[in-house]
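During the reporting period, our protein records have gained a structure token line. A sample record is set out beneath this paragraph:
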Amino acid sequence: MKKRRYPGRISFKGDWLNMPLVSAVGFDSFRKPIPLSMHSHDGYELTYVTEGEVTWKIKDGPSLRLVGGDAAVTQPGSFHCGKWNIIQPCGLFWVVFTPFAPNASKLAPFSKRELASMDKVLHSAGNSVCSTSQRFRESFDSLLELMTRTEHDASNIFTAPRSRSLISEIFILATELFSRPSTEKKLPALLLEVDKFMRKHLSQNLKVEDIADAFGLSTTFFSEAFKKESGQTPADYFRRMKCEEACRVLRSRRCSVTETAFSLGFSSSQYFAGVFKKYTGMTPGCYKSFKKGN
């Protein structure tokens, strides 16, 4: 099967659908990181990642990490941004909708009672992530095909009603997905302690065996157990943590890239730049310049 090629950017205001329930809808295929600072919406925002990875940093709340096939809902008025104030390369569908709006049932296949139930489920879900179903993904693909066609030729008068039908199906499927009890597991106590240990030693060039020794574990057992619980190797987890701190330093201090590299235990600014670009999609110098301009 050929890998699907997604379009670059498609976005429409809600009036394209002539559906008061929807404020805006769009799809982006990001091939390089782009800025996304803290913002909020008047309605719920449903996001769906087709490929790549997205992490929503929630103000006063836990971050939401999505990989290909995951969907997330963020609450009305909930301030959020991309991790490190950027969106990494990915395919991202997004729609902002207000089931609680007085005229939300107009041209929508939902009664006011059904919209109230949708609102109740999504409100109870809070800011959360879930894996999508095959039916959800197929509905999205059909909607994206219509959106792509409309961008190039808006003459077909039936495109909007077909799109209203598909996006309503996506709302139903998403509401069903988010109505299920959360299966998210809390991090085991050991992983939390390792996280704290790493944060205390960000300025050092810790090796995996150093961390394992600190907890009285063999390197092999520790590495396997850590990856099983976190989905990442200890070294990868530590490097990501260092890059997150580097972003904070580059945003808030007048430190050079070299100073930042050495303060975080990297052996050279060149090595630091390579690691930083791997996890953020841009070099430290580009990130620093980008933040100054934004």
Residues 1-7 have pLDDT under 50 and may be disordered.
